[in-house]
Design a protein that fits this description.
Elements (H helix, E strand, L loop, with lengths): L10 E4 L6 E7 L2 H4 L3 E7 L30 E7 L2 E8 L6 H12 E2 L7 E8 L3 H19 L1 E11 L3 E10 L6 E2 L5 E2 L5 E5 L2 E9 L1
Antiparallel strand pairs: 1-2, 2-3, 4-5, 5-13, 6-10, 7-9, 8-9, 11-13, 12-13
Amino acid sequence: MTDPRIGQHTRFTVRQFPNRIFTISIHADQHLFRNTAYSIRTRCQCVHGFFPGAPGASARCSRPPRIIPAMQPCHELFDHTADMGVRVRAATMPELIAPATEGFYTTIGEIVGTAETSSFAFDSGGSDSAVLLRDYLNELLILFERDRRRVGSFEHIAFSDERLVIAARSSPVDVDRSSYLREVKAITYHELSIRAIAGGYEATFIVDI
């Protein structure tokens, strides 16, 4: 195997960890790069003919692999014509719920709840996890518009392709501490998706503003 940035004198030292993150060290020819080396960190599964036994591959490794930390739940907003999009990433499907909730409220503005709380429950089944997420977010929108309440402090979340179950706490919106930037009219089905990515899952939803 040859790296075009290095040339023909390249050898690989590979240490196999099936279904785990591992390190491939690429050692340049000392006459070209004065023993310069760099590492590539990636996630992959054992592929026949690539790991030890393939030409240029060795079972020996001079140092243990560096493990990349698990993906942390997060959300980000992005413009979408006259609407606004939210993209959420997390290591597991249940972990998508908290950042998706925060992302939804961020499309409205800075929504702060009071210390007073009451129970909130959501339980819905179906055949599409993205639609289940959309139905949950639509429930948050109804609760906000009708009762001016905000959901947070999750106690239990179970999320699969067929069912979404949430137990959390809701609180009245603190009007004095909150700021309203946009009016969200609906959670749309446009570009609605949940997909597996390296390290976890990514959810995308668009709100009509």
